[in-house]
Amino acid sequence: MTREGLVVSEVPPGSAPSRWRFVQRNRLIAALSQATVVVEAGWRSGASITAGEALRLGRDAAAVPGPVTSAGSAGCHRLLREGAVCVTDAAEIAELLAPVGAEPAPERAGVPAEHDGLDPLDLRVFDALPARSVVDVDKLAATAGIARGAVMAALGRLQLRGLAVVGNGRWRRTPRVVRQQPER
């Protein structure tokens, strides 16, 4: 420690540990860090206290969102509401730590949904189409709440896009093909 390290404390060596000193320690950690990233934290956790201190000190703080039903995500969600940056992968954390003017993290390429780009009418018909059974046009029109003629036109467009198939006058969604995630 004397050659390459650093010891920082607000209390003298040998002081007894106490609960309030952990909060003091968190403030020092936040002050000495370029950024504080919280991956999982309860509402009143030490990690969320450290990130809150970082925000108060003008340091960068980030949090990874989690399920809204998880108590282990409550602290992260609170931090996001209080001004922490939302991060979801290592590239976003690296971007947060990068010097000003550095190249931003590359855009993530998501897998497009099969129904992306459909107009609202076609999307309603597509949503009403069964995936595992077949349906006639009259039943589909009733389910979608759209006139029979408009459903027929939408089915033609869906068929041209490869999203609907017909057999014996009954319609269904085209069986799904598993799409590969594009390489980054």
Question: Could you explain how this protein is built, in words?
Answer:
The model is unreliable at 178-182 (pLDDT under 50). Helix 6 crosses helix 7. This protein has helices at residues 19-32, 46-56, 74-82, 90-97, 120-128, 137-144, 148-160; strands spanning 35-38, 60-63, 85-86, 135-136, 164-167, 170-173. It has 7 helices and 6 strands. Helices cover 39% and strands 11% of the residues. The protein has 2 domains: 19-97, 3-Layer(aba) Sandwich (Rossmann fold); 120-173, Arc Repressor Mutant, subunit A (Orthogonal Bundle). The relative contact order is 0.09. The longest helix has 14 residues, at 19-32. Strands 1-2-3 form a 3-stranded parallel β-sheet, with helices on both faces. The two termini are 42 Å apart. It has 184 residues and is an alpha/beta fold. Strand 1, helix 2 and strand 2 (60-63) form a beta-alpha-beta unit.
Radius of gyration: 27 Å
How many E strands? 6
Number of helices: 7
CATH topology of the largest domain: Rossmann fold
| Major sheet size, sense and barrel closure | 3 strands, parallel
Number of domains: 2
Helices and strands, in order, run as HEHEHEHHEHHEE
Q: Label the structural class.
A: alpha/beta
CATH class of the largest domain: Alpha Beta
Global shape: elongated
Q: Low-confidence parts, pLDDT < 50 over ≥5 residues?
A: 178-182
| CA-CA gap between termini | 42 Å
Instruction: Give helix % range.
Output: 25-40%
Q: Give average pLDDT, whole number.
A: 86
Strand order of the largest sheet: 1-2-3
The CATH architecture of the largest domain comes to: 3-Layer(aba) Sandwich
Q: Which oligomeric state applies?
A: single chain
